[in-house]
């Protein structure tokens, strides 16, 4: 399967597929003319990569997870790594929620300035 067909079926850009190759997340065979050819399983692989990215994993973590998916066994330390990634994401969520709350306060004070505020909200 050629790169454009994989991209179309997986719903990603050709550029994304090239990036996945650069990151060692996806492999393609090359024709004598240099064109990439992927196995039929590449579409499912790309969808899995997309799911892992959507879960907040960076490419280095995805690179650790994929061989475990392929073999059906977890590599030593993988669970600890994934739990650390989860903690990192949870911390980021907490930070983003705090930033959102501060922004809500600014918006509320801009719409309805407290009496000590002297600026014109218009």
TrEMBL record:
Entry keyword annotation includes Zinc-finger: no
Highest taxon in the source lineage: Bacteria
Keywords noted in UniProt: DNA-binding
Ranges where the HTH merR-type domain occurs: 1-68
Keyword DNA-binding recorded: yes
Gene Ontology MF, one: DNA binding
Gene3D superfamilies, alphabetized: 1.10.1660.10
Protein name: MerR family transcriptional regulator
Protein's organism: Streptomyces tagetis
């Amino acid at each position: 399967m050629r790169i454009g067909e994989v991209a179309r079926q997986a719903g990603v850009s050709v550029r994304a597929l090239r990036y996945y190759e650069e990151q060692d997340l996806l492999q393609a065979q090359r024709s004598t003319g240099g064109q990439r050819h992927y196995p039929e399983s590449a579409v499912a692989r790309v969808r899995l990569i997309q799911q892992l990215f959507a879960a907040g994993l960076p490419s280095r973590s995805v690179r650790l997870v994929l061989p475990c998916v392929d073999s059906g066994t977890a590599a030593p330390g993988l669970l600890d790594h994934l739990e650390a990634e989860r903690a990192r994401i949870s911390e980021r969520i907490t930070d983003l929620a705090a930033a959102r709350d501060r922004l809500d306060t600014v918006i509320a004070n801009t719409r309805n300035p407290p009496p000590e505020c002297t600026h014109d909200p218009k």
